[in-house]
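Figure 6 in text form: structure in, sequence out.
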């Protein structure tokens, strides 16, 4: 339990709010929260929660810090390039709030290891791919854990609380090949704004306030927002208890070609023309009419990708960055 001095001084401006108060502040200290993805949204989310006194946090990310991350991933600096995101985030969050208990997991979250989220009170989705989101959706529905979906790209983003008894992610989203920040770009003000909205909803859930299953869309460039009421979809597999992403068969795991350093990942069929145009903005592309070759990967029309990488993790990261899910 934090000291009386910590509560009264560090969080004094927050405690003054009738929405929180002393009792609410103590609830923030006690609840356990998981943040999946410490990128543009996740780094801001983690910092806001830590500064607000959410002290029991697991942060999960498979990636390392790149120079291109610094434009929007606010916890990191030039001296952090090449280092593990979660390890650096843990170090900096502890300096922000020494009372915090930050657990860092530098892993690719999958059906094999998602049980580490057992006992968590709230999960915050700050990921960069749809398959991980569907995995979280299945796990949280099965374990009756509330979670908050958040995504941002270009100049707009979405946030939605997904509660154990309400509509789930599968009720309004289907697996598809989506744009990624590495292909089409992202404005740092939208990732920060989406993170702030996600954390505000997290406060409400932690404090036991009523939260509606509203999908919020916000375009910061056009200063436009929309609220969409999501209803349960008839015959939704997850709502019916068919948790396919909790089984390895629900995932398209990379296949490694023996001794070649090449991994194959089977994804959705692709519009090669569209992807070529996006890739050409960031590097050279070889187009032979059947495949696109870009950096360390070759992409086929049927969504199959061959990726030269040192590990399965590295191959998954490359696929997520340049192709999506």
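Output sequence:
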């Amino acid at each position: 339990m934090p000291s009386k001095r910590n509560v009264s001084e560090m969080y004094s401006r927050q405690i003054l709010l009738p929405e929180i108060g002393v009792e609410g502040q103590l609830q923030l200290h006690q609840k356990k929260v998981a943040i999946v993805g410490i990128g543009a949204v996740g780094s801001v989310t983690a910092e806001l929660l830590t500064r607000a006194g959410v002290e029991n946090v697991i942060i999960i990310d498979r990636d390392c810090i790149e120079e291109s991350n610094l434009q929007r991933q606010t916890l990191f600096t030039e001296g952090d390039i090449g280092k593990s995101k979660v390890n650096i985030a843990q170090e900096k969050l502890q300096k922000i709030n020494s009372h915090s208990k930050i657990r860092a997991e530098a892993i690719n979250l999958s059906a094999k290891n998602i049980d580490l989220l057992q006992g968590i009170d709230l999960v915050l989705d700050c990921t960069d791919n749809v398959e991980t989101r569907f995995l979280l959706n299945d796990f949280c529905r099965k374990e009756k854990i509330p979670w908050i979906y958040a995504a941002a790209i270009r100049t707009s983003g979405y946030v939605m609380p997904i509660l154990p008894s309400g509509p789930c992610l599968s009720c309004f989203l289907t697996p598809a090949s989506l744009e990624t920040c590495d292909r089409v770009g992202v404005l740092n003000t939208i990732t920060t704004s989406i993170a702030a909205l996600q954390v505000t909803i997290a406060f409400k859930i932690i404090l036991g306030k009523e939260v509606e299953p509203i999908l919020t869309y916000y375009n910061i460039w056009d200063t436009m927002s929309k609220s969409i009421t999501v209803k349960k979809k008839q015959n939704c597999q997850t709502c019916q208890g068919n948790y396919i992403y909790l089984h390895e068969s629900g995932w398209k795991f990379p296949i490694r070609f023996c001794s070649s350093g090449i991994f194959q990942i089977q994804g959705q069929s692709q519009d090669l023309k569209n992807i070529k145009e996006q890739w050409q903005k960031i590097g050279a592309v070889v187009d032979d009419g059947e495949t696109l070759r870009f950096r360390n990967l070759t992409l086929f029309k049927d969504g199959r990708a061959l990726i030269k990488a040192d590990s399965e993790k590295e191959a998954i990261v490359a696929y997520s960055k340049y192709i999506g899910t």
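Caption detail: Confidence is low (pLDDT under 50) at residues 1-5.
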